[in-house]
Amino acid sequence: MSDAETTGRRTLSAESAAAVRAYAATHRERADRLAAALEDLARNGLPHAEDCTPWETVRDRRLAELATAATGADGSAPGRHR
Q1: DSSP-derived secondary structure letter, 50
Q2: Residue 81: pLDDT above 70?
Q3: How far apart are CA 62 and CA 64, in angstroms?
Q4: Measured distance CA(80)–CA(76) in Å, rounded
């Protein structure tokens, strides 16, 4: 009996396993960055308000970036030709 038969699991293809590992690595990296930021806050406290960018500014900047990426450089929708 194979391991898959005894554990009740299906074996992933090599390609699927690689995709799952890549996904896990991406999320592990993001979690590590978040943990480092939280540890910095715990160690050093909050920064002064004057040294921070208001969240509205960050949000508006990101929304503008997304809008630019969605419409393309010439203002047309991606994939459409004039």
Answers
A1: G
A2: no
A3: 5
A4: 7
Integer Cα distance of 34 and 36 in angstroms: 5
| Cβ 46 vs Cβ 38: under 8 Å | no
The residue to which tokens 């554990």 are assigned: 7
- For residues 78 and 70, the answer to whether their CB atoms sit within 8 Å is yes
How many angstroms separate the CA atoms of 45 and 42, rounded?
A: 6
Structure pTM?
0.51
What CA–CA distance (Å, rounded) separates 34 from 31? 5
Q: What is the pLDDT of residues 14-24, one digit of tens each?
A: 999 999 999 99
How many CB atoms within 10 Å of residue 75? 7
Identity (one letter) of the amino acid at 55?
W
Q: pLDDT averaged over the chain?
A: 87
